[in-house]
UniProtKB/TrEMBL annotation:
Residue ranges of domain Retropepsin-like aspartic endopeptidase in the record: 113-247
Pfam family, one: Zn_protease
Keywords (A to Z) from UniProt: Coiled coil, Hydrolase, Protease, Signal
Signal peptide per UniProt: 1-19
Keyword Hydrolase: yes
InterPro entries membership: Asp_endopeptidase, Peptidase_aspartic_dom_sf
Organism: Shewanella decolorationis
GO MF: peptidase activity
GO BP term (any one): proteolysis
Name of the protein described by the UniProt record: ATP-dependent zinc protease
UniProt keyword annotation of Hydrolase present: yes
PANTHER family per the UniProt record, alphabetical: ATP-DEPENDENT ZINC PROTEASE DOMAIN-CONTAINING PROTEIN-RELATED (PTHR38037:SF2), ZN_PROTEASE DOMAIN-CONTAINING PROTEIN (PTHR38037)
Recorded coiled-coil stretches: 62-89
Region Disordered, residue ranges: 245-273
Length: 273
Protein backbone atom coordinates (compact mmCIF):
# COMPACT_ATOMS: atom_id res chain seq x y z
CA UNK A 1 0.00 0.00 0.00
CA UNK A 2 2.81 2.37 0.92
CA UNK A 3 4.63 1.67 -2.29
CA UNK A 4 1.46 2.34 -4.31
CA UNK A 5 0.98 5.70 -2.62
CA UNK A 6 4.58 6.62 -3.29
CA UNK A 7 4.24 5.62 -6.93
CA UNK A 8 1.11 7.72 -7.35
CA UNK A 9 2.80 10.72 -5.72
CA UNK A 10 5.86 10.43 -7.97
CA UNK A 11 3.72 10.04 -11.06
CA UNK A 12 1.67 13.07 -10.15
CA UNK A 13 4.79 15.17 -9.70
CA UNK A 14 6.05 14.19 -13.08
CA UNK A 15 2.71 14.93 -14.68
CA UNK A 16 2.55 18.34 -13.04
CA UNK A 17 5.98 19.22 -14.24
CA UNK A 18 5.09 18.17 -17.74
CA UNK A 19 2.00 20.35 -17.72
CA UNK A 20 3.69 23.54 -16.56
CA UNK A 21 6.93 23.49 -18.47
CA UNK A 22 7.03 24.75 -22.10
CA UNK A 23 7.00 22.20 -24.79
CA UNK A 24 10.34 23.38 -26.04
CA UNK A 25 12.15 22.42 -22.80
CA UNK A 26 10.43 19.06 -22.15
CA UNK A 27 12.80 16.20 -21.32
CA UNK A 28 13.16 13.24 -23.42
CA UNK A 29 10.55 10.57 -22.92
CA UNK A 30 11.63 7.74 -20.60
CA UNK A 31 11.31 4.18 -21.45
CA UNK A 32 9.58 1.74 -19.13
CA UNK A 33 12.73 0.21 -17.62
CA UNK A 34 14.29 3.56 -16.80
CA UNK A 35 11.05 4.79 -15.25
CA UNK A 36 10.71 1.70 -13.08
CA UNK A 37 14.34 1.93 -11.97
CA UNK A 38 14.01 5.54 -10.90
CA UNK A 39 10.69 4.82 -9.21
CA UNK A 40 12.22 2.01 -7.17
CA UNK A 41 15.13 4.24 -6.16
CA UNK A 42 12.81 6.96 -4.92
CA UNK A 43 10.69 4.40 -3.07
CA UNK A 44 13.77 3.05 -1.31
CA UNK A 45 14.84 6.58 -0.40
CA UNK A 46 11.41 7.38 1.05
CA UNK A 47 11.29 4.13 3.04
CA UNK A 48 14.77 4.79 4.41
CA UNK A 49 13.77 8.32 5.40
CA UNK A 50 10.64 7.04 7.15
CA UNK A 51 12.60 4.34 8.99
CA UNK A 52 15.20 6.90 10.02
CA UNK A 53 12.51 9.12 11.54
CA UNK A 54 10.80 6.24 13.41
CA UNK A 55 13.94 4.55 14.68
CA UNK A 56 14.94 7.10 17.38
CA UNK A 57 11.47 7.01 18.97
CA UNK A 58 11.49 3.20 19.15
CA UNK A 59 14.97 3.16 20.63
CA UNK A 60 13.96 5.71 23.25
CA UNK A 61 10.93 3.61 24.26
CA UNK A 62 13.02 0.47 24.43
CA UNK A 63 15.65 2.25 26.50
CA UNK A 64 12.99 3.54 28.92
CA UNK A 65 11.41 0.10 29.25
CA UNK A 66 14.79 -1.52 29.82
CA UNK A 67 15.58 1.02 32.55
CA UNK A 68 12.25 0.37 34.27
CA UNK A 69 12.75 -3.39 34.09
CA UNK A 70 16.22 -3.02 35.60
CA UNK A 71 14.86 -0.88 38.45
CA UNK A 72 12.12 -3.41 39.18
CA UNK A 73 14.68 -6.19 39.17
CA UNK A 74 16.83 -4.29 41.66
CA UNK A 75 13.82 -3.72 43.94
CA UNK A 76 12.93 -7.42 43.81
CA UNK A 77 16.50 -8.33 44.72
CA UNK A 78 16.42 -5.91 47.65
CA UNK A 79 13.13 -7.40 48.91
CA UNK A 80 14.55 -10.92 48.65
CA UNK A 81 17.64 -9.87 50.59
CA UNK A 82 15.51 -8.22 53.30
CA UNK A 83 13.41 -11.38 53.63
CA UNK A 84 16.57 -13.48 54.01
CA UNK A 85 17.91 -11.14 56.71
CA UNK A 86 14.64 -11.27 58.67
CA UNK A 87 14.57 -15.05 58.46
CA UNK A 88 18.15 -15.27 59.72
CA UNK A 89 17.42 -12.91 62.63
CA UNK A 90 14.34 -14.95 63.61
CA UNK A 91 16.37 -18.17 63.68
CA UNK A 92 19.27 -16.73 65.67
CA UNK A 93 17.20 -14.66 68.12
CA UNK A 94 17.14 -15.94 71.71
CA UNK A 95 13.66 -16.86 72.86
CA UNK A 96 13.12 -15.83 76.48
CA UNK A 97 10.74 -18.24 78.19
CA UNK A 98 7.74 -16.63 79.82
CA UNK A 99 8.05 -16.52 83.58
CA UNK A 100 5.40 -18.67 85.14
CA UNK A 101 3.43 -16.93 87.83
CA UNK A 102 3.26 -18.49 91.20
CA UNK A 103 -0.19 -19.89 91.87
CA UNK A 104 -2.29 -17.84 94.21
CA UNK A 105 -2.34 -19.05 97.76
CA UNK A 106 -5.37 -21.11 98.65
CA UNK A 107 -5.51 -19.16 101.90
CA UNK A 108 -6.18 -15.84 100.18
CA UNK A 109 -6.80 -13.29 102.92
CA UNK A 110 -7.35 -16.01 105.52
CA UNK A 111 -4.79 -17.29 108.00
CA UNK A 112 -3.86 -20.86 108.85
CA UNK A 113 -4.94 -22.62 112.02
CA UNK A 114 -3.87 -25.97 113.35
CA UNK A 115 -6.16 -28.46 115.05
CA UNK A 116 -5.05 -27.08 118.44
CA UNK A 117 -4.09 -23.44 119.03
CA UNK A 118 -3.34 -21.16 121.94
CA UNK A 119 -6.06 -18.49 122.15
CA UNK A 120 -6.09 -15.44 124.39
CA UNK A 121 -9.44 -13.93 125.46
CA UNK A 122 -9.20 -10.24 126.26
CA UNK A 123 -12.24 -10.13 128.53
CA UNK A 124 -10.99 -13.04 130.66
CA UNK A 125 -7.37 -11.88 130.50
CA UNK A 126 -6.23 -15.46 130.03
CA UNK A 127 -4.97 -17.92 127.39
CA UNK A 128 -6.52 -21.30 126.70
CA UNK A 129 -5.50 -24.41 124.79
CA UNK A 130 -8.23 -24.42 122.16
CA UNK A 131 -9.65 -27.05 119.86
CA UNK A 132 -10.37 -25.77 116.34
CA UNK A 133 -13.32 -27.88 115.21
CA UNK A 134 -14.90 -27.49 111.76
CA UNK A 135 -17.51 -30.04 112.77
CA UNK A 136 -18.96 -27.80 115.45
CA UNK A 137 -21.11 -24.87 114.37
CA UNK A 138 -20.72 -22.55 117.36
CA UNK A 139 -17.93 -21.75 119.79
CA UNK A 140 -18.01 -22.45 123.52
CA UNK A 141 -15.93 -22.00 126.67
CA UNK A 142 -15.78 -24.06 129.83
CA UNK A 143 -17.77 -22.19 132.49
CA UNK A 144 -18.92 -23.40 135.88
CA UNK A 145 -21.57 -22.24 138.32
CA UNK A 146 -23.49 -20.42 135.60
CA UNK A 147 -26.08 -18.09 137.12
CA UNK A 148 -28.44 -15.80 135.23
CA UNK A 149 -29.57 -12.50 136.73
CA UNK A 150 -31.06 -9.21 135.62
CA UNK A 151 -29.33 -5.85 135.68
CA UNK A 152 -30.94 -2.59 134.54
CA UNK A 153 -33.62 -4.53 132.69
CA UNK A 154 -31.08 -6.62 130.74
CA UNK A 155 -30.13 -10.27 131.08
CA UNK A 156 -26.71 -10.91 132.60
CA UNK A 157 -24.80 -14.03 133.57
CA UNK A 158 -22.33 -14.84 136.34
CA UNK A 159 -19.90 -17.74 135.85
CA UNK A 160 -16.56 -19.21 136.97
CA UNK A 161 -13.61 -19.94 134.68
CA UNK A 162 -10.37 -21.76 135.53
CA UNK A 163 -8.03 -19.28 133.89
CA UNK A 164 -4.92 -20.92 135.39
CA UNK A 165 -5.96 -24.54 135.22
CA UNK A 166 -8.13 -26.57 137.57
CA UNK A 167 -5.34 -26.83 140.13
CA UNK A 168 -5.77 -23.12 140.83
CA UNK A 169 -8.90 -21.37 142.11
CA UNK A 170 -11.42 -20.30 139.49
CA UNK A 171 -12.12 -16.67 138.69
CA UNK A 172 -15.66 -15.33 138.76
CA UNK A 173 -16.89 -13.18 135.87
CA UNK A 174 -20.05 -11.32 134.96
CA UNK A 175 -21.16 -10.46 131.44
CA UNK A 176 -24.19 -9.28 129.56
CA UNK A 177 -26.01 -12.03 127.66
CA UNK A 178 -26.25 -11.26 123.93
CA UNK A 179 -28.62 -14.16 123.24
CA UNK A 180 -29.36 -17.81 124.03
CA UNK A 181 -28.69 -20.88 121.89
CA UNK A 182 -30.05 -24.40 122.03
CA UNK A 183 -27.56 -27.21 121.54
CA UNK A 184 -28.76 -30.76 121.01
CA UNK A 185 -26.12 -33.18 122.24
CA UNK A 186 -28.12 -36.41 121.98
CA UNK A 187 -31.35 -37.39 120.31
CA UNK A 188 -32.63 -38.80 123.61
CA UNK A 189 -31.76 -35.69 125.63
CA UNK A 190 -33.41 -32.31 125.83
CA UNK A 191 -31.89 -29.30 124.14
CA UNK A 192 -29.23 -27.56 126.18
CA UNK A 193 -30.11 -23.85 126.42
CA UNK A 194 -26.93 -21.83 126.84
CA UNK A 195 -26.26 -18.13 127.40
CA UNK A 196 -23.98 -16.48 124.83
CA UNK A 197 -21.46 -13.73 125.54
CA UNK A 198 -19.33 -11.63 123.18
CA UNK A 199 -15.53 -11.87 123.39
CA UNK A 200 -12.37 -10.59 121.68
CA UNK A 201 -9.72 -13.17 120.81
CA UNK A 202 -6.04 -13.16 119.87
CA UNK A 203 -4.35 -16.03 118.02
CA UNK A 204 -0.68 -15.28 117.47
CA UNK A 205 -0.63 -11.93 115.68
CA UNK A 206 -4.25 -12.17 114.59
CA UNK A 207 -7.16 -10.58 116.39
CA UNK A 208 -10.83 -11.41 115.98
CA UNK A 209 -14.08 -11.37 117.87
CA UNK A 210 -16.80 -13.93 118.24
CA UNK A 211 -19.66 -15.15 120.40
CA UNK A 212 -19.02 -17.86 123.01
CA UNK A 213 -21.71 -19.97 124.61
CA UNK A 214 -21.14 -20.93 128.24
CA UNK A 215 -21.21 -24.61 129.15
CA UNK A 216 -19.50 -27.13 131.41
CA UNK A 217 -16.67 -28.70 129.39
CA UNK A 218 -14.98 -30.42 132.35
CA UNK A 219 -15.40 -33.79 130.64
CA UNK A 220 -13.56 -32.59 127.51
CA UNK A 221 -9.85 -32.18 126.81
CA UNK A 222 -9.85 -28.48 125.96
CA UNK A 223 -11.62 -25.65 127.80
CA UNK A 224 -12.24 -23.60 124.64
CA UNK A 225 -13.75 -24.67 121.32
CA UNK A 226 -13.90 -22.55 118.15
CA UNK A 227 -16.43 -23.70 115.55
CA UNK A 228 -17.35 -22.98 111.95
CA UNK A 229 -18.98 -19.61 112.55
CA UNK A 230 -15.66 -18.27 113.79
CA UNK A 231 -13.50 -20.06 111.24
CA UNK A 232 -15.39 -19.72 107.94
CA UNK A 233 -14.57 -16.13 107.02
CA UNK A 234 -11.11 -15.69 108.52
CA UNK A 235 -9.18 -18.96 108.68
CA UNK A 236 -8.31 -22.29 107.07
CA UNK A 237 -7.74 -25.32 109.30
CA UNK A 238 -4.98 -27.91 108.83
CA UNK A 239 -5.87 -30.76 111.19
CA UNK A 240 -2.41 -32.24 110.68
CA UNK A 241 -0.78 -29.37 112.56
CA UNK A 242 -0.90 -28.03 116.10
CA UNK A 243 0.06 -24.69 117.53
CA UNK A 244 0.83 -23.15 114.14
CA UNK A 245 1.07 -19.77 115.87
CA UNK A 246 3.06 -21.16 118.76
CA UNK A 247 2.41 -21.27 122.43
CA UNK A 248 2.69 -17.53 122.70
CA UNK A 249 3.26 -15.87 126.00
CA UNK A 250 0.18 -14.50 127.59
CA UNK A 251 -0.13 -10.76 126.89
CA UNK A 252 0.27 -8.44 129.79
CA UNK A 253 -2.99 -7.85 131.63
CA UNK A 254 -4.73 -4.65 130.74
CA UNK A 255 -4.81 -2.13 133.53
CA UNK A 256 -8.35 -0.78 133.84
CA UNK A 257 -8.78 2.97 133.69
CA UNK A 258 -10.50 3.97 136.97
CA UNK A 259 -11.91 7.13 135.36
CA UNK A 260 -13.39 5.35 132.35
CA UNK A 261 -16.65 3.43 132.95
CA UNK A 262 -16.74 -0.16 131.73
CA UNK A 263 -18.84 -1.04 128.72
CA UNK A 264 -22.20 -2.53 129.49
CA UNK A 265 -21.46 -5.71 127.55
CA UNK A 266 -17.96 -6.21 128.98
CA UNK A 267 -17.15 -9.28 131.04
CA UNK A 268 -16.49 -8.17 134.59
CA UNK A 269 -14.31 -10.15 136.96
CA UNK A 270 -15.76 -10.31 140.44
CA UNK A 271 -12.66 -11.87 142.01
CA UNK A 272 -11.39 -15.35 142.73
CA UNK A 273 -13.43 -17.80 144.74
Amino acid sequence: MLKQLIAIAVASSFMGCAATEPTAHAPKPLDTDTFNTRLNQQQDQLVAAINQQCQPTDLTSLTTLSSQVEQLSQQINQLNQTAKNLSAQKQTSVVTPALSQCPKSALGDKFLLGEIENVFIDELNASFATRIDTGAESSSIDARNITLFERDGAQWVRFDVYTQGEKQPATNFESKVVRFVRIKQDANEKDDRRPVIHAHLKIGQYSAETDLNLTDRSHLDYPLLLGRKFIKDIAVVDVGQRYVHGKAKQPKPKQPDPEQPKAESAIVSSGKK
